[in-house]
Design goal:
With 104 residues, the chain is mainly beta. The chain has a domain of 69 residues: 10 Kd Chaperonin, Protein Cpn10, Chain O, CATH 2.30.33. It is built from one helix and ten strands. Strands 8-9-1-4-7-10 form a six-stranded antiparallel β-sheet, with no helix packed on it. The protein has a two-stranded antiparallel sheet with strand order 2-3. Strand 2 and strand 3 form a beta hairpin. The radius of gyration is 17 Å and the shape is elongated. The model has no long low-confidence stretch (mean pLDDT 81).
Length: 104
């Protein structure tokens, strides 16, 4: 499906949050504030290209390295992610839309 991510984009697979507490179903609309979503990083792009540095030096291409890596569990802003596939819950977003990396 996706052959290559560009710049600082990240492909994340959503981890489903439980909608039940015991036997009670709680819809997301019932919460007072939207919680960030949790997901696992499936693929990352090469990093953001900075052309102004490359033009002033002999470096052909300068990229800011990515802070996340494949396999990281992250919290992200669910309102800016673009959903690619309903079956697998795959989302594309910028690295800046990720709030934090969770440690297990």
């Amino acid at each position: 499906m996706i052959s290559k991510l560009l710049d600082n984009r990240v492909l994340v697979k959503r981890i489903q949050n439980p909608d039940k507490i015991g036997r009670i179903y709680i819809p997301q609309s019932a919460t007072s504030k939207p919680d960030p979503e949790k997901g696992i990083v499936v693929a990352i792009g090469p990093g953001k290209a900075i052309t102004s540095i490359a033009e002033r030096t002999d470096i052909k291409e300068f990229r800011i390295p990515m802070q996340v890596k494949v396999g990281d569990i992250v919290l992200y802003n669910r309102f800016v992610a673009i959903q690619l596939d309903d079956k697998e819950d795959l989302l594309v977003m910028h690295e800046s839309d990720i709030f934090c990396i969770l440690e297990e």
